[in-house]
Specification:
Layout: H1 20-35, E1 37-49, E2 55-60, E3 65-70, H2 72-77, E4 88-94
Antiparallel strand pairs: 1-2, 1-4, 2-3
Amino acid sequence: MPEPNPSPEPEPSDEKPLTVAQISSEIQRNLERTFGRVFVIGEVSQPNYHSGGSVYFNLKDRSATIAAVIFKVAEKKLPFKILGHLLSIHHFGWLQ
């Protein structure tokens, strides 16, 4: 079986490259403009309780996974502890 051809290198242009901060800000603006507040349902996997009190985890369904965080202030208000694969979250919030 022949090897797939690698993607060709883009041609140099006169465009000024973006910084990481610039592209990150543009992505955030587009997400917020497109979605605003969202209601998300998914299964928690790989929860990681950070020493600062926030909980980092993945939220997934059958076909996709997104990284998520519950910050310390909100986590303290939860009436349960986040455990992977034992919890489905229905979350209403903002994409950032």
